[in-house]
Amino acid sequence: MSAIAGSAQSAAVVSSPGSKGLHIGLWVAQVVLALVFAMAGVPKVAKSLADVSQNVPFLATLPGALVRFIGVSELVGAVGLILPALTRIKPVLTAWAGVGLATVMVLASLFHLSRGEVDKLPVPVVLGGIAAFIAWGRFRTERIPSRR
Question: What gap in Å lies between CA 148 and CA 134, rounded to an integer?
Fold first, then answer.
């Protein structure tokens, strides 16, 4: 009886009335952020470092291995925002992807601040805010149930 009550209670968390808009908003945020990070990560992983540095000049000042690591992190984060939630296999990983990408954006903001590039801060701040929103929503409010 307790397991049934627990299942009903967790279903109520996912499908509570009035939360459909938040659920849809989180999915939109996940898709948009995944596209942004995939588009940012693919060149860092697939193109030569010289080509990447032409489009994003400050990357030329970083070690090549760090640029590749950032690209891989962005790609893994993009996949993590969509795949676990879509398949409902370990959907909590979607929330953790939000945490990871928010962390990457905090580090990007600190990097730009250390170089005096205050004009470049809006992009990582906004993207980090969206990632934090996804983490908050998927951890606290609109959890996606695991497939059983």
Answer: 23
Identify the H or E element spanning 136: helix 122-136
Q: How far apart are CA 70 and CA 75, in angstroms?
A: 9
Q: Two tokens at 86?
A: 């879509």
CA pseudo-torsion sign 92, 96, 101, 106: positive
What pTM was computed for the model? 0.82
How far apart CA 147 and CA 131 sit, in angstroms, is 24
Q: Which residue has the tokens 């291995």?
A: 65
pLDDT 10s digits, 107-133: 999 999 999 999 999 999 999 999 999
Residue type, 51: D
Q: Which amino acid is at 37?
A: F
